[in-house]
């Protein structure tokens, strides 16, 4: 019972993060931090300018209507049922719009040591990639990387933030305007 | 300099006082070895009057003495006496002090010194270390410098520390660390090098790339660290004098958690391979790489024993993060951590006797030490969130970083767990790594 409840909460958080992500992505666009993958999201000039949800096949459509990220339990790399259903939707969407290559970023929350969290983030990105591959997204379209605990999306010091930071984010690359 | 037996005895007694031991026999110089695990050391009362200097060099002379005093005080082993208590005013460092005046205020050791501007413009700094109760000079030395007066002060402090404790000093050393600024979700990180007391901070990368876990070469002016570079996270080698840098090895995946071998000839690191991370060593001369682990797990944070024969690392091969020791050629890994919780970031002491680690248990992050066979675990500090210990070259003091939510700061703590101190840094600071001795 407890687990079901927790997944429900994660879903709600996911929706909230998606809404705020637009702002984050826009802010990131002009940043000089060099962290975004070259040609990654944020490079699309129209990004964030359209209505909620964006036109079908757009990055915004992917982020808002499909969900670009999945969340993990503490120190876990297992896909939850919520995560699997998000990845199912991602796989369908990516099959429909094959012009995108993708980068999967694995992240960890701050409650772990730096080195281990890099490895944990890498493992999370691999798990997501393997799942997408099993759902028909060819590995040749997918790169993975890990940010460890270096790039939290939620900044606070309690469980509500940590759960949002343990994530694998599917970032669309290329394909803009095509 | 030769010492009489009486002098040796007095020195031994002073060391005994330093250690809180009862007494030592005159012939017991071999017992000068400090058991660094002894607790309850009484700091040794020491008087360090301002050094003498003429004209414009008077302030410099005062500053040098102040740095010597601060180094010794910060070690936790010395208690510098308030200058207001001093009776004798030192006016000539070439003649012995009035020992009686220093005995009255309970100084056990006295340091006198002066700064002289030479004909060639360089500074000559002289100091003498006196045993107050024996009425003897224990040490005396002079240094020449054009402007690096802080370094002269650290060298003097090292000599005093070594003379009175029998251990090598660690004051003339540096620390490489990661300077952090900006909000938590967009942290800018730069590599920085500072003196061990937090002075002379120098930034060696610009902040346009995420940089992590820098480590000094034991033998050259090089640092190995992880950087996101322009694309993928990789281990780099950076020459801090020329600014030249290169990627270490030509690996197909993310490399991270680097560290040099004790001879400086190899870099050992983790390579991500699918969902696993394995340990590899790369010979810096031949560029040959050797795979050291293949356990279907996350193996990371490797650190060589000082003799280079073994490697300690963390692995989750048994289900969660624990510490293992194996041969430096790989193989024969034995788990050594068996306490409650998860153990990570092991670092072998330069003296070989202990392994420092981060331990997570019950939501807390502790810094601790254990023997290489896993026995004798001791926690030095605990809370949220301590991480990443590094050893002073003499194996007596550690630094680590602590982030209680606002941002990380660097702290030092004695290997006994006493004398925890914040190291002042201009900004937030993490991932400290101590240099080898500079001289």
Automatic annotation (TrEMBL), chain A:
Signal peptide (UniProt feature, chain positions): 1-24
Q: Which of UniProt's keywords are assigned here?
A: Cell cycle, Cell division, Cell outer membrane, Lipoprotein, Membrane, Palmitate, Signal
Q: Subunit notes for this chain?
A: The Tol-Pal system is composed of five core proteins: the inner membrane proteins TolA, TolQ and TolR, the periplasmic protein TolB and the outer membrane protein Pal. They form a network linking the inner and outer membranes and the peptidoglycan layer.
Family, according to the entry, reads as follows: Belongs to the Pal lipoprotein family.
- Its gene name is pal
Record-annotated OmpA-like domain positions: 59-176
Q: Which GO terms describe its biological process?
A: cell division
Q: Name one GO cellular component term.
A: cell outer membrane
User: What function does this protein fulfil?
Assistant: Part of the Tol-Pal system, which plays a role in outer membrane invagination during cell division and is important for maintaining outer membrane integrity.
Keyword DNA repair, does the record have it? no
Q: Where in the cell is it found?
A: Cell outer membrane
NCBIfam families found in the cross-reference section: Pal_lipo (TIGR02802)
Highest taxon of the source?
Bacteria
Identify its membrane topology class.
Lipid-anchor
Q: Which InterPro entries match?
A: Bact_OuterMem_StrucFunc, OMP_bac, OmpA-like, OmpA-like_sf, Pal, Pal_lipo_C
Indicate what this protein is called per its UniProt record.
Peptidoglycan-associated lipoprotein
The species this protein belongs to is Methylopila jiangsuensis
Which Gene3D superfamilies did the record assign? Answer: OmpA-like domain
Automatic annotation (TrEMBL), chain B:
Where is the segment annotated Disordered?
Answer: 414-439
Name a GO CC annotation attached to this entry: periplasmic space
The UniProt keyword set, sorted, is:
Cell cycle, Cell division, Periplasm, Signal
Predominant location category = periplasm
Q: Which domain of life is it from?
A: Bacteria
User: Which Gene3D superfamilies does the record match to this protein?
Assistant: TolB, C-terminal domain, TolB, N-terminal domain
Q: Where is the TolB N-terminal domain?
A: 33-138
List locations, semicolon-separated: Periplasm
GO annotation terms (biological process): cell division; protein import
Signal peptide location in the record?
1-30
Family statement: Belongs to the TolB family.
Subunit structure and binding partners: The Tol-Pal system is composed of five core proteins: the inner membrane proteins TolA, TolQ and TolR, the periplasmic protein TolB and the outer membrane protein Pal. They form a network linking the inner and outer membranes and the peptidoglycan layer.
NCBIfam families associated with the record:
propeller_TolB
Sum up the protein's function in the record's words. Part of the Tol-Pal system, which plays a role in outer membrane invagination during cell division and is important for maintaining outer membrane integrity.
This protein's name: Tol-Pal system protein TolB
Organism listed in the record: Methylopila jiangsuensis
Lineage start: Bacteria, Pseudomonadati, Pseudomonadota, Alphaproteobacteria, Hyphomicrobiales
């Amino acid at each position: 019972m407890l687990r079901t409840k927790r997944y429900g909460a994660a879903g709600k958080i996911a929706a909230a993060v998606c809404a705020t992500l637009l702002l984050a992505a826009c802010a990131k666009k002009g940043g000089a931090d060099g962290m975004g993958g070259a040609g990654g999201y944020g490079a699309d000039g129209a990004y964030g300018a359209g209505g909620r949800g964006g036109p079908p096949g757009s990055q915004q459509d992917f982020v808002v209507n499909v969900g670009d990220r999945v969340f993990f339990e503490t120190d876990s790399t297992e896909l939850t049922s919520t995560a699997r259903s998000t990845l199912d939707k991602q796989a369908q969407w990516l099959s429909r719009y094959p012009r995108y290559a993708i980068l999967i970023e694995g992240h960890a929350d701050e409650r772990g040591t730096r080195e281990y969290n890099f490895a944990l983030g890498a493992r999370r990105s691999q798990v997501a990639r393997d799942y997408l591959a099993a759902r028909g997204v060819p590995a040749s379209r997918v790169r993975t990387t890990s940010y460890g605990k270096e790039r939290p999306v939620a900044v606070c010091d309690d469980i509500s933030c940590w759960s949002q930071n343990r994530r694998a984010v599917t970032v669309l690359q290329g394909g803009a305007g095509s | 300099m030769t010492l009489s037996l009486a002098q040796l005895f007095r020195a031994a007694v002073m060391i005994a006082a330093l250690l809180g031991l009862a007494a030592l026999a005159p012939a017991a110089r071999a017992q000068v070895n400090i058991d660094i695990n002894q607790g309850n050391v009484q700091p040794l009362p020491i008087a360090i009057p301002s050094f003498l200097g003429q004209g414009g060099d008077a302030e410099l002379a005062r500053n040098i003495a102040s740095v010597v005093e601060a180094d010794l005080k910060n070690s936790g082993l010395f208690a510098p006496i308030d200058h207001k208590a001093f009776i004798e005013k030192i006016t000539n460092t070439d003649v012995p002090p009035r020992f009686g005046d220093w005995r009255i205020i309970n100084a056990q050791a006295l340091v006198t010194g002066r700064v002289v501007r030479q004909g060639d413009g360089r500074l000559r700094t002289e100091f003498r270390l006196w045993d107050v109760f024996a009425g003897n000079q224990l040490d005396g030395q002079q240094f020449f410098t054009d402007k690096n007066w802080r370094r002269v002060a650290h060298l003097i402090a090292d000599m005093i520390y070594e003379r009175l404790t029998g251990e090598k000093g660690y004051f003339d050393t540096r620390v490489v660390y990661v300077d952090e600024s900006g909000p938590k979700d967009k942290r800018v990180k730069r590599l920085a090098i500072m003196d061990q007391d937090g002075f002379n901070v120098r930034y060696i990368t610009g902040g346009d790339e995420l940089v992590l876990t820098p480590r000094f070469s034991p033998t050259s002016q090089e640092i190995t660290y992880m950087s996101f570079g322009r694309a993928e996270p990789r281990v780099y080698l950076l020459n801090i004098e020329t600014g030249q840098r290169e990627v270490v090895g030509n690996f197909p995946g993310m490399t991270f958690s680097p560290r040099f071998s004790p001879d400086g000839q190899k870099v050992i690191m983790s390579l991500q391979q699918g969902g696993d991370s394995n340990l590899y060593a790369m010979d810096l001369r031949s560029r040959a790489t050797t795979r050291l682990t293949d356990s279907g797990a996350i193996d990371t944070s490797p650190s060589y024993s000082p003799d280079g024969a073994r490697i300690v690392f963390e692995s989750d091969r048994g289900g969660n993060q624990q510490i293992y020791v194996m041969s430096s050629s790989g193989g024969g890994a034995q788990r050594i951590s068996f306490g409650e919780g998860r153990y990570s970031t092991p670092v072998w002491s330069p003296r070989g006797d202990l392994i420092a680690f981060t331990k997570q248990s019950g939501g807390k992050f502790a810094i601790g030490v254990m023997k290489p066979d896993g026995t004798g675990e001791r926690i030095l500090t605990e809370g949220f969130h301590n991480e990443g210990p590094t050893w002073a070259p003499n194996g007596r003091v550690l630094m680590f970083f602590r982030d209680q939510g606002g941002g990380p700061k660097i702290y030092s703590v004695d290997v006994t767990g006493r004398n925890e101190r914040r190291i002042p840094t201009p900004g937030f600071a993490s991932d400290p790594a101590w240099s080898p001795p500079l001289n």
